[in-house]
Amino acid sequence: MASARDRVLDAYETLLIEHGAAAITLDAVSAAAGVSKGGLLYHFASKDALAAGLLDRLRDRSAADADAIRTAPDGSVGYYIRTSAPGGGTPGGMTRTYLAVLRLADGTESGQAVRDALAVVDADGYEALRDELHDPVLAWLVQLVGDGLYLRTLTGTPLPPGLGVEDLLARMRRYLPAGPEMAPPAP
């Protein structure tokens, strides 16, 4: 069972995604989390502390995702592209937390803190790709393709009819250096 702190952050994410930052109150978060307001305040003394907790969660999940990128059996590029695409999903709730943080940026005074946390996520992914590709431009190109797929994931936009992630990876294999990162997925 999730800890009270995790339930509060889960509820906060849900409220941000469904209603935006302007609609968030500590009472609404505590009710959605199923904890007393005192229980919420024990973990997060204010809305700013709650936002900071969500940004910490994003950074933690990003670090875990970067480790997964580096150790993916089919290589960093395949992992990055597949988990960025609609339906691919990153393990550990990264997509959901990222979307909540984007909503947090909409209506809070935490703008710089949000941008800083998003920069950490961006750097984590880039460095993990660069570890395997070695070429900074190729790593950035893969990241940009993944970012475009991730935007589709966040907005619910489907892939073009008749095309899928494996089609994209097959074309990318023509341009990227051969190696484990571009090996076809195991059956």
Automatic annotation (TrEMBL):
DNA-binding region: 25-44
Domain of life (superkingdom): Bacteria
Keyword Transcription: yes
UniProt entry tagged with the keyword Transcription regulation: yes
Keywords noted in UniProt: DNA-binding, Transcription, Transcription regulation
Gene3D superfamilies noted in UniProt: Tetracycline Repressor, domain 2
UniProt signal peptide: none
Residues annotated as domain HTH tetR-type: 2-62
Protein name listed in UniProt: TetR/AcrR family transcriptional regulator
The organism's taxonomic lineage, starting at the top: Bacteria, Bacillati, Actinomycetota, Actinomycetes, Pseudonocardiales
